[in-house]
Amino acid sequence: MRSSPGSGLAKAFCAAGLSAALFWGGPSGAASAQVAGPGDLVEAHQDWVVRCPAAQAATPVPRCEAVQDVRRRDGDGRRVIGVVVAHDEAGRLQATILAPLGVSLSGGVELFLDAGAVSLARFPFSACQQAGCVAKIPLNEPLLSAFQRGRAIRVRVRTDEGRSADLPISLRGFTSAHQRLTAPGR
């Protein structure tokens, strides 16, 4: 269920400068993730952008990432939710979700595939920072398979009052972005 403009989550988003769930736009890739530096590899994969820093491109395991930000479409372009998929230090694939401030930390994030009503998984927030609250999600085989076959992942967050909002992440281009992350020579 999406939050209405009068709901607690929408008010919390407004207080944090993010506005209500009714104002989100579409994905904007890595336009806001990190500014690409000189020589960085940057590739568009539909709604995802793969970025490999040039400073690490020559190493055996470059720190490439697939990024998507969902931004408001009312003109200010602020991020509503962002996701970065990359390998962690141990080489495991992980999605890092950046949810807006004003969410219930104890509620964490819950993932749903497309319009499905069955939760794929729930993960806690690990920290909040000025840009938002972070949840780290290991992309094990079942979750990775869901990301590859779906059209969208809905990230459900809650307020302290128990209201919820579903924040959409497009999966258009995820499979090719993931293949680029795991390709030899990246």
Task: Present the secondary structure layout.
Elements: H1 8-15, E1 24-27, E2 41-45, E3 48-52, H2 54-57, E4 65-72, E5 79-87, E6 93-99, E7 109-113, E8 119-123, E9 127-129, E10 132-138, H3 141-149, E11 152-158, E12 164-170, H4 174-182
Antiparallel strand pairs: 1-4, 2-3, 3-4, 4-5, 5-6, 6-10, 7-8, 7-11, 9-10, 11-12
Distinctive features:
8-stranded antiparallel beta sheet; 186 residues; 16% helix; 12 strands; globular; 4-stranded antiparallel beta sheet; alpha+beta; 39% strand; 4 helices
Report a brief summary of the structure:
It is built from four helices and twelve strands. It has one domain: Invasion associated locus B (IalB) protein (Immunoglobulin-like, Sandwich), CATH 2.60.40.1880.
What does this structure look like?
The chain is built from 4 helices and 12 strands. The chain has helices at residues 8-15, 54-57, 141-149, 174-182, and strands at residues 24-27, 41-45, 48-52, 65-72, 79-87, 93-99, 109-113, 119-123, 127-129, 132-138, 152-158, 164-170. Helix content is 16%, strand content 39%. β5 and β6 (93-99) form a beta hairpin. It has one domain: Immunoglobulin-like. The strands form 2 sheets. Strands 1, 2, 3, 4, 5, 6, 9 and 10 form an 8-stranded antiparallel sheet that branches. Strands 8-7-11-12 form a 4-stranded antiparallel sheet, with helices on one face. The longest helix is centred in the C-terminal third of the chain and has 9 residues, at 141-149. By secondary structure, the chain is α+β, with helices and mostly antiparallel strands.
